[in-house]
Specification:
Shape: elongated
Distance between the termini: 41 Å
Structural class: mainly alpha
Radius of gyration: 22 Å
CATH architecture of the largest domain: Orthogonal Bundle
Number of domains: 2
Helix content: 55-70%
Mean pLDDT: 76
Strand content: under 5%
């Protein structure tokens, strides 16, 4: 029975992967799709053995959801492997630190980008990294690069990140610079 169903099921999974892990979105998308299908096939090979007697129970009840989680786990692992640590840019010729501009350009872009599977994976990882920042740095990042407040303003009535955090604009910029050093791996697109 399984020999009749398996080719149809794998074809269905392959069709799903062509849409969800398309060529051009990841450098090795074709081999990643093959890896996902191979690992998925291995689940069927070990199902029913002593070590994995109930491995595929969730697939029997909620196949699309189970396969989605399976696929996302492998894509996340590959995305993390592809994210090299980048060096922070040097300060500009005026000596002012603009090191965080590239990092936070990517942060802002991530929250404005349309939802795709890979973007959601990246966004989740980025949010987790922001949550792990010290509270003052986390607040500065969220206020300036997620919510969109200015760092500071000459208008004393304008609400800015500095007024929200009850500090100076220079303090906000220092917090952002420290946060950028910790978020440097998110400088490049996934």
């Amino acid at each position: 029975m399984i020999s009749l169903v398996m080719p149809v099921l794998l074809n269905r999974c392959e069709t799903n992967l062509l849409v969800k892990v398309p060529d051009g979105q990841l450098p090795e998308a074709a081999s990643l799709r093959e890896e996902i299908l191979g690992a998925f096939s291995e689940l069927f090979a070990i199902d029913g053995t002593d070590d994995a007697s109930d491995e595929l129970d969730f697939y029997e009840c909620k196949f699309n959801r189970a396969f989605r989680f399976f696929r996302i786990d492998i894509v996340r692992r590959e995305t993390a492997r592809l994210k090299p640590m980048a060096q922070m840019p040097e300060p500009n010729q005026d000596g002012e630190p603009d090191a965080y501009e590239d990092v936070f350009a990517r942060v802002s872009e991530t929250f404005l980008a349309p939802a795709t599977q890979e973007n959601e994976v990246f966004r989740t990882e980025l949010l987790d990294a922001i949550q792990r920042l010290p509270p003052d740095e986390r607040d500065a990042v969220i206020l300036v690069h997620v919510v969109g407040y200015k760092e500071e303003s000459d208008d004393p009535d304008e609400e800015t990140a500095a007024t929200r955090c009850n500090c100076t604009g220079r303090t906000i910029r220092n917090r952002l610079t420290r946060a950028a050093a910790k978020l440097v791996r998110f400088k490049e697109a996934p």
